[in-house]
Amino acid sequence: MSNNDATPTPQPEATPAAANAADATTSPEAQLAQVQAQLNEAQDAFLRAKAETENVRRRADEEISKARKFAVESFADSLLPVKDSLEAAIAMPDAPAQKVLEGVHATLRQLSQALERNKVAEINPPAGTKFDPHQHQAISMVPAEQEANTVVAVLQKGYLIAERVLRPALVTVAAPK
């Protein structure tokens, strides 16, 4: 027989058990290296995430600090013209009373506008308004010809800042009959 006539001898096929046995002999080191690589990647990702979280926290703390430090900047800027007007009035000690009174009224308008721009609103309830303990502070109860527990007079205006009571209005309240 010639070499061409001979049928090739079949090679034994690798069975899954044989493949696992081959992997088992070489794979512990390879598997260990693969697991270590995955562990290193996970540790690196963890450290990066931790650093990013710390950076975000630090930036947020800085922003809060700046917000607190400069929170009154807008308000102070609104009050500067009022201060300028008062200083101008003081600089004119010989001004006639009528002119000083006009200047005081103008300065009060400036101050009211500055407070308005900064969300500071008056609490000045008209007579007959129901007493609200959240916005009013009763100084006394007086007999009056109106419904009990209503405002008779405002002794001192109160103020709100962005819907929050800064100072309650001091009022007298109608006593029960």
The shape is elongated
Note the main sheet: 3 strands, antiparallel
Counted by DSSP, the helix tally is 3
Structural category:
alpha+beta
The amount of beta strand, in percent, is 15-25%
Order of helices and strands: HHHEEEEEE
Helix content: 40-55%
What would your notes on this structure say?
The chain has 177 residues and is α+β, with helices and mostly antiparallel strands. It is 53% helix and 18% strand. It has three helices and six strands.
How are the elements arranged and paired?
Elements: H1 16-69, H2 73-90, H3 97-117, E1 120-123, E2 136-142, E3 151-156, E4 158-161, E5 164-167, E6 169-174
Parallel strand pairs: 2-6
Antiparallel strand pairs: 1-4, 3-6, 4-5
Helix pairs in contact: 2-3
Question: Which features does this protein show?
Answer:
177 residues, alpha+beta, three-stranded mixed β-sheet, 3 helices, 53% helix, elongated
Quick take:
This protein has 177 residues and is α+β, with helices and mostly antiparallel strands.
